[in-house]
Amino acid sequence: MSIDEIPVQREAERPLPAPNGGPAEIVLDNVTHWYGNVVAVNDITMTIGPGVTGLLGPNGAGKSTLLHLVSGFLAPSRGTVSVAGRTAWHNPGIYQVIGLVPERDSVYAFLTGRQFVTATAKLHKLPDVAAAVARALHMVEMDTEAADRRIDTYSKGMRQRIKVAAALVHEPRVLLLDEPFNGMDPRQRMHMMDLLHRLGDAGHTIVFSSHILEEVERLSGTVQVIVAGRLAASGDYRTIRRLMTSRPHVFQVASSDDRTLASALIGRQSVNGVELNPAGGLEVRAGDYGAFSRELAVVAREQGVRLRAVLPADESLESVFAYLVAS
Amino acid sequence: MSTVFNPTIAAITLRGLLGRRRSLLIALPSLLLLALTIGLRAATNINSSHDFGWPGVVLGQIGLVTLLPLTAMIIGTSVLGTEVDDSSILHLLATPVSRATVMFTKWIVACGATLVFAVVPIAIAAFIATSGYVDNPGPLDMTFTPIKGDASEAVGVIVAAAVGAVVYSAFFLFLSVVTKRSVAVTLIYILVWESLLTRFVSGLRLLSIGQYELGIADGVGHLPNLNSNLTVSTSVLMSVVFTVVALGYGTRRLQSFRVSGEAA
Question: Does the keyword ATP-binding apply (chain A) (predicted)?
Fold first, then answer.
């Protein structure tokens, strides 16, 4: 069963209220951050407005650093970061505007979920703590008996949700989430995506990081691709997706007659190059993933060659992102 | 924008501190002191403990200079250090509460816990150790009645312990903010700096919280064998300076709290 087929009781029909104080923008202007002599974020300029924006990139690309710069937990080594027109660094007042869901799931595990969210509401000095807590727990579907259990009994997905509830309890105009779907089961993911969608649609500025393309694709209209600390690509996810799927792919193919298969493949439009491996098998560079996958089987049948193995050689995310940087 | 003390932070901190099994660990040094004091008192149950001169050594070198900092270390590094280490402090800091309030509240909790877990046992030990006997009862008689103004000796130790709890808590809280290895650094401070170096290098005694305690205990109670080196006025002045600087600089560091990133 794919994620799409999993039935979810959506609340999408019920729109969320617009954020208090109106929409807020995040502006990064030539922001660089380095740890010692390691550059984590390299001269990034971007403006993120209301709606859902995904920060996409491999692990260690600088996504978390970027979120920490925006949330005021890192100072830019160079450049400026502002949220709703105010600097985040050295400014605790900014947390009236920002809600932060850190990646690490270290929370006060000795508290119950409700106590944790209540404590957060009290720290925000909300006028009606009980109502705010009930609303936040409901938003993340934690308004169950689980809310009164200690957090150290929670699954990873439940911990993520209680963190989101705490971050949402003061109805922030900007919500920053670092790898929010880690540990969630497909149904929880769908619900969280739905919630973030609705918040984005209501005018909140939602920024989340992920190293999984499919998560970003499902959730955000706008994608910022971060690779090696740089902004590698930016814009609509469809454009990014197209770039990713149309990049050259390398396959390792083993067959009953490598030379015959190689000569037949080189004549095909979807194939850019073929090389015979000295140890046996072929290395095929394909220009179009989908077309090559279809044609390979046809060619093999036409030539009477039996395919023994077809392995994509460069499917790591790093190679995908490296291609994006190069293009 | 907020008050200096935040009851929500205090409640979370206290639950984190006492809810764990750590409270047993916190109580252990004090229990050892009490056991030692009672044992020595029973063993020297002949006339006054002063005849043996051990109260000054036990209350001073063991109680004030070893037990108190060890207890304060466990508490001081727990109330903030563990949250800094596992980044759960982010949940506190990502709120509009000022960092000065976070620091001050944590310090008050650390002081309170150290008072309960170290100063109260030291106070009990001080009264047991400095009390005399009405007459000459059997070795297991525990009816301690202060005589010959011994109560002032105990009071001196108690005041010193209370001051020590306040200063150590501030200093260890400060270390929790400035280093990720706060437990190791505080142990080095207690075992190497205070217990070893200040013994041989007299100039360093001016930078030793333990020496401030001994100075105050001696100045207030004049308990023999405390081996104090500083005057009471110097001790009080340095205690105030140490506390203010530790809290002030600790708050500044907390205001610049950085999350260690991927490349760190």
Answer: yes
User: What range defines the domain where residue A259 resides?
Assistant: 246-326
Q: Is the pLDDT of residue A269 over 90?
A: no
Other beta carbons within 10 Å of A3: 13
Task: Sort out which chain A residues have CB atoms less than 8 A from B15's CB and list them.
Answer: 108, 110-111
**Residue ranges of E strands in chain B:** none
Q: CB-CB: which of B90, B255, B264 is closest to A100?
A: B90
> Is B2 within a domain?
no
Which of these ranges, A54-63, A109-118, B47-56, B181-190, has the smallest mean pLDDT?
A: B47-56
Question: What is the number of residues in chain A?
Answer: 327
Residue B20's pLDDT band, with cuts at 50, 70 and 90, is low
**A216 and A145 in one domain?**
yes
Which of A32, A73, A103 has the highest number of chain B CBs within 10 A, making it the mutation to test binding with B?
A73
- In this structure, are A167 and A316 located in the same domain? no
- Say which CATH number the domain at A229 has: 3.40.50.300
- Partners of residue A59 in chain B, C-beta under 8 Å: 262
Within this chain, do residues A176 and A34 fall inside the same structural domain, yes or no?
yes
Distance between CA atoms of A142 and B162, rounded to whole angstroms? 45
Residue B261 included in any domain: no
Same domain, A42 and A129: yes
Co-location of A34 and A107 in the same domain: yes
- What is the model's pLDDT at position B150? 59
Q: What mean pLDDT, rounded, does chain A reach? A: 86
- Bridge-based pairing state of the strands A205-210 and A222-227: unpaired
Which of A203, A221, A241 terminates a domain? The answer is: A241
Pairwise pLDDT comparison (A126 vs A157), residue with the higher score:
A126
The amino acid sitting at A31 is V
Please tell me the distance from the alpha carbon of residue A169 to that of residue A100, in angstroms, as a whole number. Answer: 11
Q: Regarding beta strands A98-101 and A174-178, do their DSSP bridges make them parallel or antiparallel, or are they unpaired?
A: parallel
Do A260 and A303 touch, CB atoms closer than 8 A?
yes
ipTM: 0.83
The candidate with the shortest Cα–Cα distance to B32, out of B56, B55, B57, B66, is B66
Q: Could you tell me if residue B157 is inside a domain?
A: yes
Interface of A with B (CB under 8 A): 33-35, 38-40, 59-60, 62, 64-65, 68, 71, 73-75, 90, 92-93, 95-96, 98-100, 102, 104, 106-108, 110-111, 116, 119-120, 122-125, 163, 166-167
pLDDT band for B173, please (50, 70, 90 cuts): very high
The closest CB to that of B12, out of A59, A95, A119, belongs to: A119
Single out the residue in A207, A241, A275 at which a domain terminates.
A241
Same domain assignment for residues A167 and A37: yes
- Among A68, A74, A92, the residue with its CB nearest the CB of B98 is A92
Which residues in chain B have their CB less than 8 angstroms from residue A70's CB?
A: none
Among the partner residues A100, A102, A122, nearest to B8 by beta-carbon distance? A122
Residues A22 and A162 in one domain: yes
Contact state of B8 with A123 under an 8 Å Cβ cutoff: yes
Q: What pLDDT does B87 receive?
A: 83
In terms of phi and psi (left: phi > 0; alpha: psi -120 to 50; beta: otherwise), the region of A235 is left
Query: In chain B, how many domains are there?
Result: 1
Same domain, A110 and A37: yes
Give pTM, 2 decimals: 0.81
pLDDT-derived band at A124, boundaries 50, 70, 90: very high
Inter-chain CB proximity A125 and B88 less than 8 Å: no
Q: Write out the residue range of the structural domain in which residue B48 sits.
A: 7-255
CB A177 within 8 A of CB A150: no
